[in-house]
């Protein structure tokens, strides 16, 4: 049994949990005793992670859907008991990772859609779908994985940052509207992580000028890994996190600081 906050008896939905940070969060929640609903756009990834959890003795179900499609979200979730904890993790520009980076002045409205649909609308859809049951149960947790791109700015990633900042703003209103029902809402703001999304940068070009230039901006000169995030998720998702709400907590190796 894992030490630290426990989630026994809680149902946790993790979006975009087929790989990377979401997968790490799903595995950690299961290890802490939660029943995990593993979402991803890619059904085979959901199955794989849910299978991994079950093989380790945990409880998990697979819930493939596209967070950008509200009808698909509600239809898929109707087949499962409502979650007590939602981790809005699905992000980036789609199933294949970040779209081309470009200065905002060089982008067109059509380029913005992929960022806004996953990083902002995806969060709106999943949160709207699960919140009424949390209110009825008078207990809930909404955690949203955002990015320092939305706090500190990101030249070349302006719309991604704007979408993440929008999702972070939703959290603050959710906290105020739902605290009376023992529902907390918090953001976890990440710096550059080592996940399948960014793996080429670290695995193939770890000594490249680009990788070195990125790490120069970090007090702790390494990219983050999913395990850097999971203990915070467990705390915020547990009963011990009941007086932490409306916050954006940075897990970023000292890339930027919150005052
Ligand atoms: N990797 C980083 O450096 C970094 C930095 C800051 C913030 N983040 C954020 O962390 C979160 C996870 O990032 P990651 O690096 O693990 O990404 P990743 O691309 O490795 O994994 C994301 C998963 O989400 C799934 N997904 C994508 N679009 C989806 C959709 N519409 N519906 C359902 N699932 C969908 C993908 O299939 C994939 O399995 C994202 O919100 C990302 O924006 C990542």
Automatic annotation (TrEMBL):
<dbReference type="InterPro" id="IPR050259">
    <property type="entry name" value="SDR"/>
</dbReference>
<dbReference type="InterPro" id="IPR020904">
    <property type="entry name" value="Sc_DH/Rdtase_CS"/>
</dbReference>
<comment type="similarity">
    <text>Belongs to the short-chain dehydrogenases/reductases (SDR) family.</text>
</comment>
<keyword id="KW-0560">Oxidoreductase</keyword>
<protein>
    <recommendedName>
        <fullName>3-oxoacyl-[acyl-carrier-protein] reductase MabA</fullName>
    </recommendedName>
</protein>
<keyword id="KW-0964">Secreted</keyword>
<dbReference type="InterPro" id="IPR002347">
    <property type="entry name" value="SDR_fam"/>
</dbReference>
<dbReference type="Pfam" id="PF13561">
    <property type="entry name" value="adh_short_C2"/>
</dbReference>
<keyword id="KW-0134">Cell wall</keyword>
<dbReference type="GO" id="GO:0004316">
    <property type="term" value="F:3-oxoacyl-[acyl-carrier-protein] reductase (NADPH) activity"/>
</dbReference>
<dbReference type="InterPro" id="IPR036291">
    <property type="entry name" value="NAD(P)-bd_dom_sf"/>
</dbReference>
<dbReference type="GO" id="GO:0032787">
    <property type="term" value="P:monocarboxylic acid metabolic process"/>
</dbReference>
